[in-house]
Design a protein that fits this description.
Layout (H helix, E strand, L loop, with lengths): L1 H24 L6 H20 L8 E6 L2 E8 L2 H12 L6 E8 L3 H10 L1
Parallel strand pairs: 2-3
Antiparallel strand pairs: 1-2
């Protein structure tokens, strides 16, 4: 009976160790190095967008997570969306882009659509 208890306890211990090992291997946050890299990418993208004569008048938000830069905000043309994409692609360290920029419609178009319904 004692031998059986020891075996059961040993198996339980192995299961606990396996669960802890699996749990610690799951990455749900960035390491300090990745955070710094992402901060540098964000800063570089923001500065390039602000320096661009065509894009500097728009309020474009930039966030970076694990090398993927996410753009959000409103612009007035697809050309601005494409230009922002170009700038982000030029930054070293960018692994991907999520371009969530929205093209605003002119007031005239907005009123036409609003009154058609």
């Amino acid at each position: 009976m004692k031998k059986r208890n020891i075996v059961v306890q040993f198996l339980l211990l192995l299961m606990v160790i396996a669960v802890i090992a699996a749990w610690t291997s799951i990455r749900t946050h960035e390491s300090a190095g990745e955070y710094v890299d992402d901060s540098l990418i964000t800063t570089k993208v923001k500065s390039l967008l602000a320096a661009d004569d065509f894009l500097k008048s728009f309020q474009i938000s930039v966030k970076t997570y694990q090398g993927t830069a996410q753009l959000s905000g409103f612009v007035n043309s697809q050309k601005a969306v494409d230009k922002a994409d170009e700038i982000v692609k030029s930054v070293k360290g960018v692994a991907g882009i999520k371009n969530n920029l929205i093209v605003k419609q002119g007031k005239e178009k907005y009123h036409e659509i609003e009154h058609q319904g």
